[in-house]
Design goal:
With 365 residues, the chain is α+β, with helices and mostly antiparallel strands. It folds into three domains: 7-130, Response regulator (Rossmann fold), CATH 3.40.50; 134-227, predicted glycosyltransferase like domains (Thrombin, subunit H, Beta Barrel); 262-362, predicted glycosyltransferase like domains (Thrombin, subunit H, Beta Barrel). Helix content is 24%, strand content 36%. It is built from seven helices and 17 strands. It has helices at 18-28, 39-46, 61-72, 92-97, 110-130, 213-227, 340-355; strands spanning 7-12, 31-36, 53-57, 81-86, 102-105, 134-144, 147-157, 161-166, 175-180, 189-198, 203-210, 262-272, 279-286, 290-294, 304-311, 314-326, 330-335. The chain has a six-stranded antiparallel β-barrel. Strands 12-13-14-17-16-15 form a six-stranded antiparallel β-barrel. A five-stranded parallel sheet has the order 2-1-3-4-5, with helices on both faces.
Length: 365
């Protein structure tokens, strides 16, 4: 764990004009940066050295994508923030789908790069905090597909996910629902998660998908108390072949959200597309690819929606489609971001959430 060290970045770019600009901005932000001109050289470095962020020039898109995919398969950098530098010739959707978290559009100006990297820096710090894990032993009951009350044991826990020991193989995609009690707490924690990796011994890595407010509070209090306890150390390393993605999140290829998701409490309004009737709701996590909407009356899967969020001096109107529905609980929405301005607004909101997850007081009534 590198929580007490400076943030680090690797710049993979052969543009002699852009590299000095990026290195200067990173230095101004307190990020120690290295430079590799060629993807093959960078990949050798990524195989052995962890970085908080990797900036990749997509001028040679196949080589850039190969670098991103291979970096995600290395234990040292499977959770690294990947910033892809693209122009109008690049397939941005494909770059995102193969593991990029942030997009920096060319031509790269000092102002644009500074704004984007400042937002990325907030996410790097947030990712470090959420990567702190604690070992424990808590019996759990699982439900998925046609299975109810399958036994498992929670063996490590963080703000964003957990490791479990399962008696049976879990489905590689789709939601898994958990119920367990944390040591010293009587009230059960209930949440849903998604499988990231699992091995032949029954160890499984889970990324939280949706955590109700009461369970989120219980997790946060328990983690805060135990992270400050002497001897609360780092867990054993994860298996060396986890699925690609940032943090512990991975789902089916139809729902490419291998991007960092951030827990939040963000008031919003959601509309069926074309309707003027708002439904008051809360966003409980958000990423560049989508969000989870807590509402007692979720829309059917496939419904086109518009989400309106007001925070500080921002007012966002984000269109998307309902991907997953949990009756009386909420719905997962995949964003439909069509312009660079829409994508940049979402990134700014995520940066704000990373600094202050609880934003209810900033939302207009």
């Amino acid at each position: 764990m590198r929580s007490d060290m400076a943030l680090t970045a690797l710049v993979v770019c052969a543009d002699a004009k852009v590299v000095p600009l990026l290195l200067r901005i990173l230095s101004d932000l307190g990020i120690q940066a290295e430079h590799c001109e060629h993807p093959l050289t960078a990949l050798a470095r990524l195989a052995t050295h962890p970085f908080d962020a990797v900036l990749v020039d997509c001028k040679d898109e196949p080589a850039a994508i190969e670098l991103i995919v291979n970096a995600r398969q290395t234990p040292a950098n499977r959770a690294t923030l990947v910033i892809a530098m693209v122009d109008g010739r690049n397939r941005v959707r494909e770059v995102f789908a193969r593991g990029a978290n942030f997009i920096l559009y060319k031509p790269i100006s000092a102002e644009r790069a500074s704004t984007s990297l400042r937002a990325a820096r907030a996410l790097m710090r947030r990712e470090r905090r959420t990567n702190q894990r604690i070992s424990l032993h808590a019996e759990a009951a699982l439900a998925y597909a046609a299975t109810e009350n399958a036994p498992a044991t929670v063996v490590e826990l963080s703000e964003s996910g957990m490791g479990i020991q399962s008696e049976g193989k879990l489905p590689p995609s789709g939601k898994v629902y958990f119920q367990f009690c944390l040591p010293g707490q009587a009230a059960p924690v209930r949440l849903s998660g998604e499988v990231v990796w699992q091995d032949s011994s029954g160890r499984v890595g889970i990324r939280f998908a949706h955590v109700p407010q009461a369970s989120r509070r219980a997790l946060s209090q328990w983690l805060q108390a135990n992270l400050t306890r002497p001897g609360a150390g780092n867990p054993p390393p994860a298996p060396s072949n986890p699925l690609a993605g940032l943090g512990l999140l991975s789902v089916s290829s139809a729902d490419r959200r291998e991007r960092s998701r951030h827990a939040c409490r963000l008031g919003a309004e959601v509309y069926r597309l074309g309707s003027n009737v708002p439904t008051r709701c809360s966003l409980s996590d958000i990423s560049t690819g989508g969000c989870y909407v807590e509402t007692s009356d979720p829309f059917p899967s496939g419904t086109a929606v518009q989400i309106v969020v007001r925070a500080r001096d921002m007012k966002l109107r984000i269109q998307g489609n309902v991907q997953a529905v949990h009756r009386a609980f909420g719905m997962g929405v995949a964003f439909s971001l069509k312009t660079a301005e829409e994508r940049e607004q979402v990134q700014q909101l995520i940066a704000l959430v990373a600094q202050r997850p609880e934003l209810d007081s900033l939302v207009e009534s």
